[in-house]
Structures are given as C-alpha cells and as structure tokens.
Amino acid sequence: MTQVSRITDEQTPTSTSSTILLRISKFNPEHDDSGRFMEFTIPYEKWTTVLEAILDVKKHFDHSVAVRYSCRQATCGSCGMIINGKPRLACFTKISELNSNVVTVEPMNNFPIIRDLAVKFERLFNTHQKIKPYLIRDDSELESDEKEFLQSPEEVEQYIQFANCIKCGLCNSACPTMATDSSFVGPQALAQAYRYVADSRDKGKDSRLKIIDDSHGIWRCHFAGSCSQVCPKGVDPAMGIQLLRGYLLGFRG
Ligand code: SF4
Ligand code: FES
C-alpha cells in the first residue's frame, strides 16, 4: 500500500526551494511478504542531501523508517543505499544533482535486509576480515628496536588509493557476481587484499594470495567494472583485482 503525504506548513518551501517526490522502500522481512513504497512530497534546497530528506520524513511523517547513518560526511560508510537505481551514499548525494523530480531510495542489493533501508553487513565484514586487512611482519622484527618501516613516495603510491576504502559496500552492491555467488569474496575484500599485498612494509602476500586464489575468489570476477563506477572514495577495485591477478599469474613480483 502506498501512502502519500503532503508538506506541512512548517515545511513550506522557501522562495529558493523546490519539492520532490521521495519514494522510500518499506520492508520488514519478519512480517512482510513483499516490499512496498511510501511516498512523500518534501521541500529541498540546492544543497539538501538524500539523507537529509529521509531524516525529514522520519521527523515529520514516519519515524519508523529504518536507515543507518552516522558521520553525514562520506566517512563512516554507513548510509549506502540504492538511489534512483544506483548504489550511492545518501549523505554524499545531493537531490539537486539527481536531475529528477522523483527520488527513489531502496536498500543495497546483495545485502540481506534488516528493515527498510538498513541492511546486514556481516558478509562484507567477514570477507574483509578473511583477507587479513593489516600489515603482517615477522614477530622477531616487531620485537627489534626498529620502530619505523619507512617508505618512499613511490612505494606509498602503489596502494594509497585503496587505503581510502570506507567499507560502505557500494561496490559489492553493484557487483553482478555478488548477486549470483553467495560465497564470492567480492570487490571490496579483493581491493583490500591488493592494498596490503602492494604495501612494501607487508610480508603477508603469499598467505593472502592463497586465500583469494579460490573458486569463489578472484577468478569469479568477470570484470564488469561496476564496482569502480560506484565507489564514492575513488577506489578502483576492478583495477586492484587485475593487479592481483598479475601476482598470481607471475607478471608481478
Ligand atoms: S572500495 Fe569504495 S565502494 Fe567499495 S567499500 Fe570501499 S569505499 Fe565503498
Ligand atoms: S553517514 Fe557516514 S558515510 Fe554517510
């Protein structure tokens, strides 16, 4: 069932604002057989984000809308969702940049739904943990007096863009292989595997390559490239996956 709500006097747009129809997916897997959309007409300004519009709905119309967010500045990775058909961060997407009078928000694909727009992150965190997302050194080195492992700018350049990952899961949501293989390690974890393998301070390359050289690992990627198109932090998981394959095929040392 669809509910249409109108703006209240309190929300009457200013002279510089317009209104949009915000369609929010409502689904509670514990009670509902299928999802539905609730629709709200709300005002927005040039700088209003999709997250702010959703929070407006929670404040004025329906406080039960489930949405996860925290930093509101594209840093914590909490607010990923499908916005007008594409995985995006709600706090980093301005309504004005969507060029549409209708904004539809749905939970991320390839993630189990908790309720409405909130999804479970267990699979992402498990695969991230699986590739050992930390520097691996010999115990004896760590016990030595050497306190720093210096790098040249060129060595930092090898991995630094991959260190910008905020674990938002947008890349996994966009990935067609994630949709068809529930055991696929996914672009987020593969990009992080590359991040550590390419780090000159790390000595865990062989163990990480062994983990991803699996029937549900790196070879399942068929290079759709959609992961890289949706990343809000400029990470290029598709490139990381190709570079990792170079190690496994003996093209890289
Ligand atoms: S690689 Fe990009 S899209 Fe994927 S989890 Fe990290 S920040 Fe998000
Ligand atoms: S609320 Fe933190 S990334 Fe959007």
What does this structure look like?
The chain has 253 residues and is α/β, with parallel strands linked by helices. The protein folds into 2 domains: 4-119, Roll (Ubiquitin-like (UB roll)); 122-248, Alpha-helical ferredoxin (Fumarate Reductase Iron-sulfur Protein, Chain B, domain 2, Orthogonal Bundle), CATH 1.10.1060.10. 30% of the residues lie in helices and 15% in strands. It is built from 10 helices and 8 strands. Helix 7 packs antiparallel against helix 8. Residues 6-13 have low confidence and may be disordered. The structure holds iron/sulfur cluster and FE2/S2 (inorganic) cluster. Iron/sulfur cluster binds next to helix 5 and helix 7.
Summarize the structure.
With 253 residues, the protein is an alpha/beta fold. The protein has helices at 50-60, 122-130, 139-143, 153-157, 170-174, 176-180, 186-197, 205-212, 226-230, 237-248; strands spanning 4-5, 18-26, 36-44, 80-83, 86-89, 102-106, 113-115, 118-119.
